[in-house]
């Protein structure tokens, strides 16, 4: 399997100390050979632990695309993990329905206010 770095991952790699860059590169090569990347929960991303640093990647079966490299305390804040919860579609439908109910309530409220004001005149 081959691997490539995104432009963002290349920038992340250049920010690392020189000795760590070589270690990260070697660990990535070894991890690909030994399938050491771990799946992130509810995400298509995979991670590789290298001491206090993490490599975040996506594996499409043919190649591994490295997206981010950084310290473990803030790397997960930097990646955009798509939320793929199984009930997401149901939740969105319920939110839309709730929005429609509120809208109908407001319309009824306006009609009631108009009727009330016409009675008071």
Could you provide a short overview of the structure?
The protein is of the alpha+beta class and 121 residues long. The chain has two domains: 2-78, RelE-like (YaeB-like fold), CATH 3.30.2310.20; 85-121. It is built from four helices and five strands, in the order E-H-H-E-E-E-E-H-H.
Description:
This protein is α+β, with helices and mostly antiparallel strands and 121 residues long. It has 2 domains: 2-78, RelE-like (YaeB-like fold), CATH 3.30.2310; 85-121. The chain is 52% helix and 23% strand. It contains 4 helices and 5 strands; from the N terminus they run βααββββαα. A 5-stranded mixed β-sheet has the order 1-5-4-3-2. Strand 4 and strand 5 form a beta hairpin. The longest helix is centred in the last third of the chain and has 33 residues, at 88-120. The protein is elongated, with a radius of gyration of 25 Å. The mean pLDDT is 79.
